[in-house]
Amino acid sequence: MARWTASRHFSYGYGRVEVLSGFINALFLIVIAMFIFLEALERLYDPPDVHTDKLLFVAVAGLLVNLFGMYAFHGGHGHSHGGGHGHSHGGGHGHSHSSSDGGDHGHSHGGNANMQGVFLHVLADTLGSVFVIASTLLIQNFGWQWVDPLCSLILSLLILGSVIPLLKSSSSVLLQSIPDGLDESSYERISNEIRAIDGVLDFSDFHCWQLKAGTNYCSIHIQAHPQSNEQLLRHQVQQLLLKRHQLKQITVQVEKENALLLKSSNKFQQQNPNENSTSFHLKIEN
């Protein structure tokens, strides 16, 4: 489903289905881990008798199946390839879109959130089988009934520790946080570099967000000098963000100062329609 093409209702495509699935998987694993944790505390306080007649055979069989599952799902990480397109409009203002070339193949740090969630499910089952084997052997040889709830307690903590990074990364993408590697200091550096470009007076509406892991979007509104070259200015801003800061899918809107002044003047006249009208009253007395 994540590979479905974009539609009129979903103009960005369905790439975030992977992120949403990873987020749901993370929540589900946290609920399971908390349930195991609470039950383990109760069983640790009052250890029940554990019957281990066929438990070892079942645990070993489950471990083999889960190891195969881990091997199968471990390769489920994401690669991202960028396309390239662009268009621009002349006149008082314009905008263009640019995306990075697919030649420099990128490896997304977040990977496929959905596959990561599935892998964590299999990992939790694998660890569960390992702990069942260990607790079964200890109970059979030493009669330590408290080992079973202790292993469950450790398992729940391991599940929580492994799933929290997935929950943080997937929720960060869903909340449209800034891309990885772009912090406040990076933003200040980018701001100074953009203002240093010849013809740039100022900029506003600078937004960067992640559509999914490894796919970053950026939009910016440039206020330019009236004599500046719009095409060159857009190209310079795009290259700065693409090459030096690894941002992709960039939309740059350029608006010249005279167009801004005209727009402000029209807005003022709409708000104050009587401001520029002059009335003369002539009173004739006999």
TrEMBL record:
Stretches of Basic residues bias are at 81-96
Domain Cation efflux protein cytoplasmic positions:
182-256
Does Iron appear among the keywords? Answer: no
Which GO molecular function entries does the Swiss-Prot or TrEMBL record give? antiporter activity; metal ion binding; zinc ion transmembrane transporter activity
Q: Give the primary localization class.
A: membrane
Does the record bear Acetylation in its keywords? no
Protein's membrane topology: Multi-pass membrane protein
Q: Which GO terms describe its biological process?
A: intracellular zinc ion homeostasis; zinc ion import into Golgi lumen
- Compartments reported by the entry: Cytoplasmic vesicle, COPII-coated vesicle membrane; Cytoplasmic vesicle, Secretory vesicle membrane; Golgi apparatus, Golgi stack membrane; Golgi apparatus, trans-Golgi network membrane
A Pfam family this chain is assigned to: ZT_dimer
Q: Which residues form the Cation efflux protein transmembrane domain?
A: 2-175
Region described as Disordered: spans on this chain: 81-107, 266-286
Write the record's keywords in alphabetical order, separated by commas. Answer: Antiport, Golgi apparatus, Ion transport, Membrane, Metal-binding, Transmembrane, Transmembrane helix, Transport, Zinc, Zinc transport
Reactions accelerated catalytically = Zn(2+)(in) + 2 H(+)(out) = Zn(2+)(out) + 2 H(+)(in)
Query: Which residue ranges traverse the bilayer?
Result: 20-41, 53-73, 118-139, 146-167
Q: Where is the composition biased (Polar residues)?
A: 266-280
Q: Which GO terms describe its cellular component?
A: ER to Golgi transport vesicle membrane; Golgi cisterna membrane
Protein family per UniProt: Belongs to the cation diffusion facilitator (CDF) transporter (TC 2.A.4) family. SLC30A subfamily.
Q: How does it assemble?
A: Heterodimer with SLC30A6/ZNT6; form a functional zinc ion transmembrane transporter.
Q: What is this protein called?
A: Proton-coupled zinc antiporter SLC30A5
Source organism of this protein record: Meloidogyne enterolobii (Root-knot nematode worm)
